[in-house]
Write a structure and sequence with these properties.
It is a single chain. The protein is 33% helix and 27% strand. By secondary structure, it is α/β, with parallel strands linked by helices. It folds into two domains: 149 residues, Rossmann fold, CATH 3.40.50.720; 165 residues, Dihydrodipicolinate Reductase, domain 2, CATH 3.30.360.10. Helix 1 packs across helix 11. It is globular.
Length: 340
Amino acid sequence: MEHNILIIGGTGLVGKTIARILKKRNPQFNIFIGGRKGGKTDKDLKIDVTDLGSFSIILEKKINLIILSVNDKTDHVLRFAIDNKIDYLDITKPTPDLVKAYDLAKNRKVSSRIVFSSGWMGGIVPGLANTLSDRVDIREIKLFVYYSVKDLAGESSAHFMAENVAVPFSEYKNDQPVSIRHFLNTEVFDFSFGIGKRRAYNFDVPDLYILNRVERVPDVSVKMTYNSKFITWLLGSFQYLRIFSILSLKERKMIFGSSGKGDQSVFEIVVKDKGICRKLSLQSTKGQAELTALSAVLHTEELLRNPHGNNVYFGHQLHEPLSLLAQLNAYETINIKVTQ
């Protein structure tokens, strides 16, 4: 079967990285790049997620799989994929948009594979967490994120933080949502890979929802620290004093919109199960864009190579947890450590 894959948002940082990795690993795939301005070749398609009329080219090119790496708040692409029985993989949605899109898909008759992979770094955290316990009923999962302002960053993550930094979100205690705000409730955590002890603060990622509502983990929290201790402290102070609430969206975008030339990205998963604490530490030496793109590629390869029925999935649900761990560990810029 011929595989025609369309990356919408393929001209952005993560989209370009997905295309590079996918082409290198699967030269037999036909990869099309969708963007608002189109391009110079027949593989560059002019597609605007806000313009339904631009979607007709998807059918003309007989696309089998759409990878969405640009924010589509109105879910036009999702509806189009469901209506036209096209496989769909989304890696871009913040938590509120993910919940809305997931509910939409679950309430529609689906005749293709609809995959949501908007969790941290392409939706791999729940799968990796499941490698740390042989029990179905894990009691608690904590995710700690190390983010470097030196790392390459796309616009979408900066815009999400600018739009939502002053908006409360939920972590979960005893299977109940607890309303919290970004950059408060400090917790000291000893990060691996030479980073050391850092103060980490509340941070909203879709894994909070996925781990509690889908994986049924009662206690779930996520905390983040920046490579700069001063920046971490400053953002916490801004939130404590409610300065973000009085800044304009433009001003908040200026705060979160920095992007460097590249740096490591690290996250650590701590699983508590019957008094035993296990930790998985993952380092991407080429940063978060590389890891997010790799995760999207692994989901794509799994969809196209192995049988998966027409249904709605989260990315980690496509994989056997240990197989996902092994594939990530085999990639040249990924380092993984597991400790108890």
